[in-house]
Amino acid sequence: MATSLGRIPGWAKALAAVALVLVVLLAGLRLSVLPGLKDVFGTETRDRSGPALLESVRDISRYEAASGNFQVVVDLEKDAAYLPDAVRGTRTLYVGAGTVDAYVDLGKLGDDDVTVNEDRTSATLRLPHAALGAPALDPERSYAVSKQRGLLDRLGDLFSDNPNGEQAVQRLAVRHIGEAAKESGLTARAEKNTTDMLEGLLGSLGFKEVRVRYGNG
């Protein structure tokens, strides 16, 4: 004898309703992979940023003579006294990639720093030594390899405006890249490139002899 709809148990009706919801969700996912149909459950990203404002302008007299690409692996661990790492502590493994430019500031040249002979065939220039610019971290090539956080740190992330912030490892990466640039010989390369540039430029203007010196020497 067939069972009437009115005699179906309540739990069976609830189960049927859940099954119907799952069927609808699965159907929506399948529609998303069909060409020409939009995923009804998808999200749309809108950029509501305001226009960029020009705050200041300054003239640049630096000759960017060399640029170095660097990469460093930062392993930063923070432990709490008297607490195991599983309860309180963090460890982040971060790959930082960035560039450092080396430049010669031609804007510091004075009248006494350029000497030209009477027939304008010989020139002597005294330039300041090359210097290093600030390291610039490349966000496209920098990334966290792994993050380990204790229970209390995970709970703190729930109430933080910037959960899992990477400022500390990024600052360390910038510092290590800057230190590596100082030991890389980048400034010497910049001075050589600046000399080659000036010799070629003044040679094209008719100078037969060009001497470039750096520092007070």
What would you note in describing this structure?
With about 220 residues, the chain is of the alpha+beta class. It has four helices and eight strands, in the order αβββββββαααβ. Strands 1, 2, 5, 6 and 7 form a five-stranded antiparallel sheet that branches. A three-stranded mixed sheet has the order 3-4-8, covered by helices on one side. Strand 3 and strand 4 form a beta hairpin. It is elongated, with a radius of gyration of 32 Å.
Question: What is the element layout, followed by pairings?
Answer:
Blueprint: H1 10-33, E1 62-79, E2 89-105, E3 114-116, E4 122-127, E5 131-132, E6 136-137, E7 143-149, H2 151-158, H3 167-182, H4 186-204, E8 209-214
Parallel strand pairs: 4-8
Antiparallel strand pairs: 1-2, 2-5, 2-6, 2-7, 3-4
Radius of gyration: 32 Å
Alpha-carbon distance between the two ends: 111 Å
Helical content stands at 25-40%
Uncertain runs: 1-5, 29-34, 83-87, 152-156, 158-163
- Largest sheet geometry: 5 strands, antiparallel
SSE class: alpha+beta
Mean pLDDT: 76
User: SSE order, as H and E?
Assistant: HEEEEEEEHHHE
Strand content: 25-35%
**Which geometry do the CA atoms define?**
elongated
- According to DSSP, the number of beta strands is 8
Number of helices: 4
Keywords:
single chain, 217 residues, alpha+beta, 5-stranded antiparallel beta sheet, 3-stranded mixed beta sheet, disordered N terminus
Gist?
With about 220 residues, the protein is an alpha+beta fold. Helix content is about 30%, strand content about 30%.
